[in-house]
């Protein structure tokens, strides 16, 4: 390609606009990785890697696209190799192609990348390739490939569910803008034309809002609706969003028969993302604490469809339903528990748990330290200082936990109408609003403990609920709760609850009374109608059983749609996939990749057949290989003349001679066919490397 | 004589055993080398002459006088141990001066046929364009039919017979240009041209005193030549090659006022066969055709209605056809 390499400094309005759009598009996908690195690692690493990639892109301007593409692929490959090499040995040992494909499919069907255990290495590994390629192409004014690469990256995160609606919309607009401005730039457009494209883009952005305002319009607004529940696009079982007003429904969720009540735990979460909690990893085992001295048997009967299995910590045995165990050691049903379906669970606990923590040291296992001390980079600083201040007089983990628990109960105000979510929920709660509910308290305590070097995790579930008979507890939506577990070496997880109990109970009672007045008692109703106190972040409308930003940890599933949706991707997902696949195919076709890919295979695969056909096939492939390496044969040129003109090598001439015999004499046999194959192979080897 | 009789199979003596290709090639190389001792430096033209000879055709040389046309013909005749005769065409030459005539023998009271100069293995028709058309056609019909008819009696010409006719390229005002139909009978038209300085020095060194053409020793015989011609006739011409020839000829017709005739296509294919033999192959490849096309086709093409037959424009028509027609087309 003789395309000129543009000067980096050339400034036209269209080019500036196009590059700005590339920047926005690139940022919209890198934002996800930025967030990941923020959550689990050091942001300086991210900036260093990104800066290095951009420098490489700037330096590589003189390189031809195909080599740059090779560099990009190599960067990605090297990164993924690094990721695999740092993965736990148990993972690498069982690494097969099927496993990799399976993992990829899992990721692309809404498995947030944040759930990967080793996500820091992964995120840093995948930053360079798209950043480098996008900017390489952008600097070379090849906007279509730049958009293709960045769009692919963004599309990936859309499929994993990590890119929010707003970011995706902005990215799509930026992609359209890049192509539009890039085309204008290539044709030397005037300022007016550039502005026209700008206006069109703005219209695209604004139109949905306007349309939704129109009577009968069904367009989705972005912005307003976006603020509350965006963080929980995936199943709430693995991910909990925070903030926003909370929905406490008086609907009966389940009934427990047990010897004694307890906190009915549903899920544990280890990774704090700044705006929510995520459980990393895939599966774990049920295990009781060391030296457990109490066993509690419970029979739990669902009173509405449940996708969780509440139980006192730590459950050690479950029967009655099919279930699997999360990496947090909690059971979840396979599918959904139907109304009145019940299961039996046995839990073990250490009666003297808090005392054990009191006596415990700080000799934590590596695995615990790796998982349960993570705090996002951007949360640190003032929160660290605050935690250090609060625990100034505490020396042991237990003392620190007590100090933080008491401090939170004393100084923060309980309110169900917490301010809307943002990306730094704990920091906002601790330093700014100082108002929140159980999720805020528990999150804040976990983050502060971690800042002090004490492994802790965020736990959701239900408080004991209302005793409705001898050994029977009825648990409602308003009983949903979040608390904290602190790790004690040699003992296990010890429960702490920093939420002020009386304030919480008052709020719950108010909610129930309110509901009684308006909505009547619906103890066993299938309805999920929420009370009037809150926004209805409804669970019924979402086809992928998602619990939004409230604290309700049990996913309530509305209708049959959700029941089947847990194993197969829903129709919407499939449609999205189809659109993406079509788009990729179109781009590939546009770039001639399909044809080239086919040719590459075609050159390598010479079918068997009668010797004449084999020789003719080999000859045809030879001409193709030589045409790519040198130049195509001219129309009036005989093959001999052509080979002379390009000064072809011996295998080419041997193959040409065989072909002449086959074509003009027609007496080649299998020996000649084999020789033709060998010659073709030799020729490919010669010309395989550029 | 019909056009059909010019096909390769029709006029060949099937009783002759073909030589193996390698031997035919060796024979050609011997002859080429031998002629080369007389004609300095013109290997290409010597090869062209042998191609025409093997293709059972005849050669038209267009040249200025004195570049060795006669030497070429004589050396060729001497090399194959054949007879050589020469006809100097002049404006007053009569047909019977070429073919021979029946002469009344008073001793036995009968007409005896006295063979003319056309009875030879290699016949040099010098400055053929200076004789009137009637005389020209006597020679051309003889070489086409392989026999002459005098006074109702057919007389077979020697086999092989190879006519080398020359045209004077200068003094164009005192010539009778060969009509298209007659030019068409020459398989190839070549030009010897002047030697370059080095060759000329060599020529001067050789010919002063004793002319080397007197010393040419035969390196083959007429029988072997007949066999080599049979070999040539049996060289394989695959369908793609025939298609290539046909498309080339058709292309000249597309691009010129007068394109190459079907006889031109036959001549081209035959010459390609001969070229294959020169290369030691028993099958024709497109390169053979491509190599022969300019010298076989050009003199049959008239680019524009008013243009000279076989002129520079005709050469361009042929080379353009060669550029356009794909020899590898399926």
Automatic annotation (TrEMBL), chain A:
TM region positions: 16-37, 43-60, 67-85, 119-138, 143-160, 166-184, 196-214
Pfam families: DUF4129, Transglut_core
Region (Disordered) location: 514-565
Keywords linked to the UniProt accession: Membrane, Transmembrane, Transmembrane helix
UniProt xrefs under InterPro entries: Bact_TGase-like, Papain-like_cys_pep_sf, TgpA-like_C, Transglutaminase-like
Domain Transglutaminase-like, residue spans: 430-500
Feature: compositional bias, Low complexity: 528-558
Protein name (database record): Transglutaminase-like domain-containing protein
Organism from which the protein derives: Halarchaeum nitratireducens
Taxonomic placement: Archaea, Methanobacteriati, Methanobacteriota, Stenosarchaea group, Halobacteria
TrEMBL record, chain B:
Molecular function GO labels: ATP binding; ATP hydrolysis activity
Signal peptide from the UniProt entry: none
The organism's place on the tree of life at top rank: Archaea
Domain ChlI/MoxR AAA lid: 252-308
ATPase AAA-3 domain residues: 58-187
PANTHER family named among the record's database cross-references: METHANOL DEHYDROGENASE REGULATOR, MOXR FAMILY PROTEIN
Name of protein: MoxR-like ATPase
């Amino acid at each position: 390609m003789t395309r000129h390499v543009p000067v980096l400094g050339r400034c036209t309005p269209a080019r500036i606009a196009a590059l700005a759009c590339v920047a926005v598009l690139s940022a919209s996908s890198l934002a996800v990785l930025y967030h990941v690195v923020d959550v689990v690692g050091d942001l300086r690493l991210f900036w260093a890697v990104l800066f290095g990639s951009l420098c490489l892109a700037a330096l590589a301007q003189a390189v031809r696209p195909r080599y740059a593409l090779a560099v990009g692929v190599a960067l990605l490959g090297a990164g993924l190799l690094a990721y695999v090499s740092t993965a736990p040995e148990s993972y690498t040992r069982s690494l097969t192609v099927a496993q990799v494909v399976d993992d990829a499919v899992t990721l692309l069907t809404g498995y947030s990348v944040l759930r990967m255990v080793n996500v820091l290495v992964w995120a840093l590994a995948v930053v360079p390739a798209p950043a480098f390629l996008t900017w390489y192409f952008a600097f070379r004014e090849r906007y279509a490939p730049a958009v293709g690469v960045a769009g692919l990256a963004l599309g990936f995160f859309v499929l994993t569910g990590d890119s929010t609606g707003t970011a995706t919309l902005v990215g799509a607009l930026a992609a359209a803008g890049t192509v539009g401005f890039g085309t204008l730039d290539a044709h030397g457009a005037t300022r007016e034309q550039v502005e026209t494209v700008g206006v069109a883009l703005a219209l695209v952005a604004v139109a949905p809002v306007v349309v939704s305002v129109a009577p009968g319009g069904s367009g989705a607004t972005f912005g307003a609706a976006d603020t509350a529940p965006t963080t929980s696009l995936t199943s709430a079982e693995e991910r909990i969003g925070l903030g926003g007003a909370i929905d406490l429904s008086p609907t009966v969720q389940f009934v427990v028969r047990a010897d004694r009540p307890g906190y009915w735990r549903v899920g544990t979460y280890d990774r704090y993302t700044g705006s929510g909690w995520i459980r990393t990893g895939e599966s774990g085992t049920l295990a009781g604490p060391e030296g457990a001295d109490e066993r509690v048997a419970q029979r739990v009967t669902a009173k509405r469809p449940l996708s969780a299995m509440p139980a006192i910590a730590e459950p050690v045995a479950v029967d009655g339903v099919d279930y699997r165990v999360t990496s947090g050691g909690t059971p979840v049903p396979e599918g959904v528990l139907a109304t009145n379906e019940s299961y039996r669970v046995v839990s073990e606990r250490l009666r003297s748990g808090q005392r054990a923590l009191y006596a415990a040291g700080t000799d934590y296992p590596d695995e615990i330290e790796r998982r349960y001390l993570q705090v996002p980079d951007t949360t640190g600083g003032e929160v660290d200082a605050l935690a250090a201040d609060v625990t100034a007089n505490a020396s042991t983990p237990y003392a620190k936990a007590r100090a933080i628990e008491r401090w939170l109960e004393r100084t923060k105000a309980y309110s169900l109408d917490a301010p809307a979510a943002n990306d730094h929920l704990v920091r906002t709660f601790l330093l700014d609003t100082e108002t929140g509910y159980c999720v805020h308290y528990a999150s804040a305590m976990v983050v502060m403990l971690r800042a002090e070097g004490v492994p802790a995790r965020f736990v959701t579930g239900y408080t004991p609920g209302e005793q409705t008979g001898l050994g029977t507890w009825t648990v409602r939506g308003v009983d949903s709760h979040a608390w904290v577990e602190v790790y004690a070496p040699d003992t296990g997880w010890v429960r702490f609850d920093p939420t002020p109990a009386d304030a919480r109970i008052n709020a719950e009672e108010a909610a129930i009374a309110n509901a009684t007045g308006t909505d009547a008692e619906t103890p066993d109703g299938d309805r999920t109608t929420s009370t009037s106190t809150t926004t209805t972040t409804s669970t019924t409308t979402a086809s992928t059983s998602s619990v939004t930003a409230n604290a309700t940890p049990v996913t309530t599933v509305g209708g049959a749609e959700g029941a089947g949706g847990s194993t197969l991707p829903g129709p919407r997902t499939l449609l999205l996939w189809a659109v993406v696949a079509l788009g990729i195919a179109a781009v590939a076709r546009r770039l001639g990749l399909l044809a080239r890919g086919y040719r590459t295979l075609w050159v390598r695969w010479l079918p068997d057949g009668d010797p004449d056909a084999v020789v003719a096939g080999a000859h045809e492939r030879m001409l193709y290989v030589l045409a790519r390496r040198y130049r195509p044969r001219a129309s009036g040129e005989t093959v001999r003349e052509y080979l002379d003109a390009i000064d072809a090598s011996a295998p080419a001439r041997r193959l040409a001679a065989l072909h002449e015999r086959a074509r003009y004499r027609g007496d080649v046999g299998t020996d000649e066919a084999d020789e033709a194959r060998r010659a073709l192979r030799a020729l490919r080897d010669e010309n395989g490397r550029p | 004589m019909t056009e059909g009789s010019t096909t390769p199979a029709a006029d060949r003596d099937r009783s002759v055993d073909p030589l193996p290709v390698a031997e035919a090639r060796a024979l050609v190389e011997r002859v080429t080398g031998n002629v080369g001792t007389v004609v300095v430096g013109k290997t290409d033209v010597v090869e062209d002459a042998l191609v025409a000879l093997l293709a059972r055709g005849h050669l038209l040389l267009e040249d200025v006088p004195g570049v060795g046309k006669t030497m070429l013909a004589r050396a060729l005749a001497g090399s194959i141990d054949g007879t050589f005769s020469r006809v100097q065409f002049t404006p007053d030459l009569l047909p019977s001066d070429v073919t021979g005539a029946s002469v009344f023998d008073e001793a036995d009271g009968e007409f005896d046929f006295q063979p003319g100069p056309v009875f030879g293995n290699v016949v040099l028709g010098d400055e053929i364009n200076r004789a009137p058309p009637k005389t020209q056609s006597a020679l051309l019909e003889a070489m086409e039919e392989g026999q002459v008819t005098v006074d109702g009696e057919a007389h077979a010409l020697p086999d092989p017979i190879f006519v080398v006719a020359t045209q004077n390229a200068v003094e164009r005002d005192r010539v009778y240009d060969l009509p298209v139909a007659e030019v068409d009978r020459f398989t190839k038209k070549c030009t010897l041209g002047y030697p370059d300085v080095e060759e000329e020095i060599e020529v001067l060194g050789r010919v002063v005193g004793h002319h080397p053409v007197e010393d040419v020793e035969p390196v083959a015989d007429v029988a072997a030549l007949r066999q080599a011609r049979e070999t040539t006739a049996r060289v394989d011409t695959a369908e793609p090659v025939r298609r290539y020839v046909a498309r080339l000829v058709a292309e000249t017709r597309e691009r010129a006022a007068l394109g190459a005739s079907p006889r031109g296509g036959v001549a081209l294919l035959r010459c390609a066969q001969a070229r294959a033999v020169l290369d030691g192959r028993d099958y024709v490849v497109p390169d053979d055709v491509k190599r022969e096309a300019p010298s076989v086709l050009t003199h049959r093409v008239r680019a524009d209605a008013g243009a000279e037959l076989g002129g520079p424009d005709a050469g361009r028509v042929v080379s353009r056809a060669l550029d356009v027609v794909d020899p590898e087309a399926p």
